[in-house]
Amino acid sequence: MAISQQFLNPTLFKSLASSNKNSPTPFFRLKSTSTTFNFKPLTSSSSATIITRAAVSSSDSGESKSRETFHGLCFVLKDNIDTDQIIPAEYGTLIPSIPEDREKLGSFALNGLPKFYNERFVVPGEMKSKYSVIIGGDNFGCGSSREHAPVCLGAAGAKAVVAESYARIFFRNCVATGEIFPLESEVRICDECKTGDVVTIEHKEDGSSLLINHTTRKEYKLKPLGDAGPVIDAGGIFAYARKAGMIPSASSA
Fold first, then answer.
1. Are 110 and 121 a contacting pair, CB within 8 Å?
2. How far, in Å, CA of 156 to CA of 121, rounded?
3. CB 133, CB 199: distance < 8 Å
4. What is the tens place of the pLDDT at every residue in 124-138?
5. What does the alpha-carbon distance between residue 130 and residue 75 come to, in Å, rounded to a whole number?
6. Exposed/middle/buried for 177, CB within 10 Å: 0-12, 13-18, 19+?
7. CA–CA separation, 176 vs 179, rounded Å?
């Protein structure tokens, strides 16, 4: 992977580690040269079945995410899509944890794109996008560290981004918030797909993914998410920590 995947939320991780000193397995292991997260997959307390592909619910939004398949229209972008283009700074005062603000964030997703992008990701006056998959080029999500960027895409209804490479902070925020799956392509798909193409993302048993463009009848292999996958499946780092028993669940707090 082209980016360095290091810790997502150092304060949270520190508190999780200190609150679980007696656990035989640490919540995470950080290596300075590692290119993968070392999160343990969630297991069911009753049957110890590893949960890696089943639908799981976010404790914050109540929405279910599944890595089985994503299907719908794609919205195609090019290189260096920065966070100001994803969500302009003027909307940074909106608070994602407030349902009304979250909905507004979704309506402004990709509102800062240059004028040469003729199509709008979210039609003015609408709150959701008709595009469920975003396809980008190199260095997707560069710019500031604002978590509003992946949040607004998820709030708009997007399920995944498929890009040639990602800015490190954007990738980390996708995992930390659990809002959207940041999948990495092996080839430059953004030059071969067009906005409005019908696509499906299928996830395989070995952890890899496949993007199928039904409009062009082409298929593209995607790189595995690795150990970051279970965290996004759970709905983000806090939801993952609750399900792993590292912090109290919302109902018991």
1. yes
2. 9
3. yes
4. 999 999 999 999 999
5. 9
6. buried
7. 8
Between the alpha carbon of residue 146 and those of residues 12, 65, 126, 149, 229, the distances in Å are: 17, 22, 23, 6, 21
Token couple for 76 = 């195609």
CB 233 within 8 A of CB 226: no
Strands 131-135 and 69-76: parallel
| Rounded distance between C-alpha atoms, residue 121 and residue 113, angstroms | 9
179, 153 Cβ separation under 8 angstroms: yes
- Distance separating alpha carbons of residues 2 and 6, to the nearest angstrom: 13
Helix axes 168-177, 148-155, angle to 10 degrees: 50
Pairing of strands 50-51, 198-203: unpaired
CA-atom Rg of the chain in angstroms: 18
Residues forming a β-bridge with 82? 142
Nearest to 232 by CA among 30, 44, 72, 39: 39
Q: Are 111 and 135 in contact (CB under 8 A)?
A: no
Written as six digits, the tokens of 109 are 């997703």
**CB–CB of 198/215 below 8 Å?**
yes
138-150 tens-digit pLDDT: 999 999 998 999 9
